[in-house]
Amino acid sequence: MPLLIACLSVSLSVILFTRPTECRSNIMKTDFIQAMFEEYDSSLSPNFESNESTKVNMSLYVNSIDSISEQSMDFTINAFIEQEWCDPRLIFYGMIMDEYFELDSKFMVRVWVPDLYFTNEKRANFHVVTVPNKMLHLYNNGCIKYRLRVSLTASCPMNLQKYPMDSQRCSLYLQSFAYTRKTIDFVWKSIKPVVASKTMELPQFTLVNVNTRNSCDENIGGPDFTCIQVDFNLKRNTGFYMIQIYIPTIMIVLLSWVSFWLSIDAVPARISLGILTVLTMTTQKGAAISSLPRVSYVKAIDVWMAVCLAFVFAALLEFAIVNVMQRRQQKFADPSSFVNSSNKNEEEKQNSNNRRLSSGKRDAQRVDNVSRVRRTLGTVDHLIPSFEQALGRVAYIKDVRNPAMVQIPPYLQAYKYKLANTDHTFL
């Protein structure tokens, strides 16, 4: 009996310690993979029988952030997504010497993979040039590393109250579509879960930092579904806006102030300058906000443009006020009666001439007002005398009616001969 027990022990030792070596030397990799997946069901989760949750370690390599749109409030990202989990049904059990297998993308359909999707995704696509950009490594302990390349456009709600001096946070939400935490659990890797390319450069923003969380601000499926989040904190670059918006608007405002140094009598120049700067500022404002959504709140760029437009309009309004004030001073000149020039000295004669000219200007203003009314009524084709000619005619007629009262000034002598041969009965 003891001999039988000893023989059985030796036989068992030979089977346990020598048989696996012979198997490792004789089994082919192809036969092993075919045999391993013969009874494998890719429609069932790894721990389906044990009712344990499968932990999936996630990592993200950001290749590029292509665009960030304020109009549609979204951003486009190109990234490599890597998932790692363990499936006890795929353990080698020491039958193959290789540490891991590199499986082709056509073979991946036979392996169970997590049902990952992006909650805030608008559009997405896989890269298939020249072959599908997917990778699957199967390790001897049953763990799987699955990597794929994807380009997607995700929503990014923005607050533009400080635009263009604002900072934005664009997030990606990664969640399981069908499995609850009882079956699958997503977590970020403990070391470098998100890595951005060193050559990545954004035209309008600077990537300040990246934060990861194992929970989401908004979990669509509720707390029973696993969800993780990555936040991209972005700060807007102001160089473009300084060159295209701020410096030009400052120069337009300074240009509108040039009218303060022009003579008050240069009416066409000041009016043209004021209107030109107002229209230019209006056009500049429209171009600045054309790429922004029609939000109901006030933005920083709106305040800047409104202040610049107010300065430009105030410069135009200032000329109108000054011009009216000058006209009012001329209108309310001293209208005292004239004095007989034969009984007055030379100073009194000059004062009399000045008063007569003020009265003449008022009469000329009446002619100018009548001319405006006539032009408004459409009678612009009639011949209307100029301001100076009307002034001279009125002054001369007064002198003709009462030659003893006043004396015609020297600069009106040119009209005397011309008007002497003209019939004045129509006056």
UniProtKB/TrEMBL annotation:
Q: Which domain of life is it from?
A: Eukaryota
Q: How does it sit in the membrane?
A: Multi-pass membrane protein
Domain Neurotransmitter-gated ion-channel ligand-binding, residue spans: 31-237
TM region positions: 245-264, 271-291, 303-322
Q: Which family does it belong to?
A: Belongs to the ligand-gated ion channel (TC 1.A.9) family.
Q: Name one GO molecular function term.
A: chloride channel activity
Q: Which residues form the Neurotransmitter-gated ion-channel transmembrane domain?
A: 245-341
Q: Which InterPro entries match?
A: GABAA/Glycine_rcpt, Neur_chan_lig-bd, Neur_chan_lig-bd_sf, Neur_channel, Neuro-gated_channel_TM_sf, Neuro_actylchol_rec, Neurotrans-gated_channel_TM, Neurotransmitter_ion_chnl_CS
For the keyword Thylakoid, the answer is no
Q: Which UniProt keywords apply?
A: Cell membrane, Chloride, Chloride channel, Disulfide bond, Glycoprotein, Ion channel, Ion transport, Membrane, Postsynaptic cell membrane, Signal, Synapse, Transmembrane, Transmembrane helix, Transport
Its recorded name reads Glycine receptor subunit alpha-2
Residues making up the signal peptide according to the UniProt record: 1-23
